[in-house]
Amino acid sequence: MEWFYKGLSGVLLLLYLVIISKYLRKYKRQEDGIELNTPLRRSAFVLLILTLLGFTVPQALYVSSDLLDWANVSISTVVRFVGLFIYQLGLALFFISKDNFDDNWWSGPEIGHNPHLAKETVYGYMRHPIYTSVYTVMLGCTLVAGNWLIGVCALVPFTALCVVRIPVEEEVLKRKMGSGYAEYKKATGFLFPKLFGRK
Known about the structure:
Blueprint: H1 2-24, H2 27-30, H3 38-64, H4 77-100, H5 129-145, H6 148-177, H7 180-187
């Protein structure tokens, strides 16, 4: 059955790259919307490239060869299909987030130009749903492949990217929303919806 999971992983990877490619083409232009100093901007760009390489190269090797089979983990078919479901959830969240604020991806913060709409969308539950969607897709792909190295290579650089970018985006969001930011932050989760304390 490993051939099946390799084929499925290849399809999922290709699908995600096709979907996300048109948004990545906007990266350089939209970076002008983020107030980053040059070293920080370069760091974010380098981490973005490392994330893309970490997400695609190991999966491509897993699909096309047996070079990474040593990192395979014995997991059940049920868990792998749970991974497929998680992947689909990640894609759905990505599309919902992008549909809410189509011109703001990577332009920081995600809701920066339309802060008054925050409470009417997925952004009324969490402040950084696009980052959450990427984490979810990566987790789903890792479970489908059943290969821990795929997860590590993707999640480590992406987490570093989040550490660099999100604090800056939060600061920009604070300036754009003014006095309403404290209330918004209290009512929403960071990467996941708040379970308690939401008004």
